[in-house]
Amino acid sequence: MPDPLKQMAAPVIRAKLIYNTEFQKQFNTLEKAQYSSAADIEKMQFEKLKAVLIHAYEHVPYYHKIFDKCGLNVYNIKDSSEISKIPTLDKAEIIANFDELQADDIDDFYSATTGGSTGTPLKVNLDRDSIYKERAFIYHFWEQHGYSYKSSKMASFRGTDFHGGFIKYNPLYNEIQLNPCEINTETISEYIKRMESFGVDFLHGFPSAIYSLCKCAKQLNIDLKNKYKAVFLISENIYDFQRKMIKEVLECDTFAFFGHTERAVFAEQIGGGGYRFNPLYGYVQIDTDGSIICTGFINQKMPLIRYRLDDTATPYYDLFKIEGHRDGVLYGNDGEIISAAMLEVHSPILDKIANYQFVQEYKGTVEVNVIPFNNLTEREIESVRDLFQNKIGLAITVQVNVVRAMEYTSRGKYKLIIQRVRG
Q1: What letter does residue 377 receive in the DSSP assignment?
Q2: Each residue of 48-69: pLDDT tens digit?
Q3: Is 61 exposed, middle or buried, given 0-12, 13-18 or 19+ CB atoms closer than 10 A?
Q4: CA–CA distance, 281 with 160 (Å, rounded to integer)
């Protein structure tokens, strides 16, 4: 539908989401839960978990077989920890048993595919109601930071399907979607113009894209202070240098939640620090190696029970620090490992660079691709090389290349490290 028609139909389209029965029911449950005791929340979580197990046993062939084999009587379960009898489920197991993981009583569903950042993409079937339940969790989290699903307007920096342009209107979410891959000093004024015209009061999207927006604004002395109430970050790893730049340029706070396409876990960042797993979205266990093992509540078509993620969680006071496989590492010739967290650097020379990315094809060497605001001299290029070489040390030889664009995933996500070393 062309954008002018979308705008005309926007109230009707938006109403399909925010007045949906499942959305309203889930959102109201979350609102009430804010004032419930820890004991009541635990009871609610157990009831949801037991319902998921019973439904899976009665309607999902894979779990009927697995539960019988491990001796789990879902009708008599008295404590959440009893599900530890069930073997964990990983991506390979899902792919191998895809057909048997489908509930036979859910006909209204659709298919989605994960990004495949750790190998083969994973296909999952999601029941239609999960769309509305998921959005209720997101909006409830955002509302804690000033967002109103009834009136707020969002600019979202994510996605890739822009057909050569850089903007799309999404009336369902009351937002404009902006191409995260085309932000530079030549286009930024148009981005800002479109956001002002739409009346944006919140930003949402990939950290790399909003970081680029802020860095370009700073380079051109464009004042964006206090124009937006908050920034909600998603999908990519969030680096300290990105948060600092966003905070400096926009003078507003950043928040993030942790979730995934499979809809089995939802964790909310608390106060810019650790994350708290939402107990009404799913039941989470942390293995001895830190692996996140989750059982989701909102997707009945293909329930994932004891699903082991590639991501890990470590205790952080009474919260968790979540680290994902998306971080990436660099490899030295002699087994040295340089993590993404170790690559943060500060230098005036980086003020001349819009963005940079590490690409490693072979152990012991790495190419740093940089996009400068203006042409760099040979001496400046050498200064950038020296900066990263000194940071990394002698384990890996650094080469710097000036490029026109960063490399993005198929979903338009930026990764600080593109790792192609095999074996």
Answers
A1: P
A2: 999 999 999 999 999 999 999 9
A3: middle
A4: 28
Which residue in the block uniquely carries the two structure tokens 């479109």? Answer: 194
Q: Indicate whether 228 pLDDT > 70.
A: yes
Closest to 307 in 3D by CA, of 282, 280, 275, 278: 282
Dist. CA 327–CA 177, nearest whole Å = 25
Q: Which residue has the tokens 């839960």?
A: 33
Q: Which residues, at least 6 apart from 382, have a Cβ–Cβ distance to it below 8 Å? A: 400
Residues 415 and 236: beta-carbon distance below 8 Å: yes
Do 103 and 56 form a contact (C-beta atoms < 8 A)?
A: yes
Tokens of 286: 């942390």
* AA letter at 290: G
To the nearest 5 percent, what fractions of the chain are helix, strand and coil? 35, 25, 40
**Nearest CA-CA partner of 233 in 268, 202, 257, 211:** 257
Q: Coil, strand or helix: which one is 21?
A: helix
Q: How many CB atoms lie within 10 A of CB 126?
A: 21
Count Cα neighbours of 286 within 13 Å in the Cβ-side half-sphere.
Answer: 14
Name the pTM for this structure. Answer: 0.81
Handedness of CA 309, 314, 317, 321 (dihedral sign): negative
Token pair recorded at residue 372: 């400068």
Give the C-alpha distances (Å, rounded to integers) separating 222 from 197, 213, 355, 375. 17, 10, 18, 21
Quote the tokens at residue 371: 């996009």
Cα–Cα distances in Å, from 386 out to 255, 368, 400?
34, 11, 10
Look at residue 352 and give its three-state secondary structure. Answer: helix
97-to-89, 293, 314 alpha-carbon distances in Å: 10, 19, 30
At 278, list the tokens.
Answer: 């939402």
Cα(126)–Cα(102) distance, integer angstroms: 10
pLDDT per residue over 87-138, tens digit each?
999 988 999 999 999 999 999 999 988 754 444 568 899 999 999 999 999 9
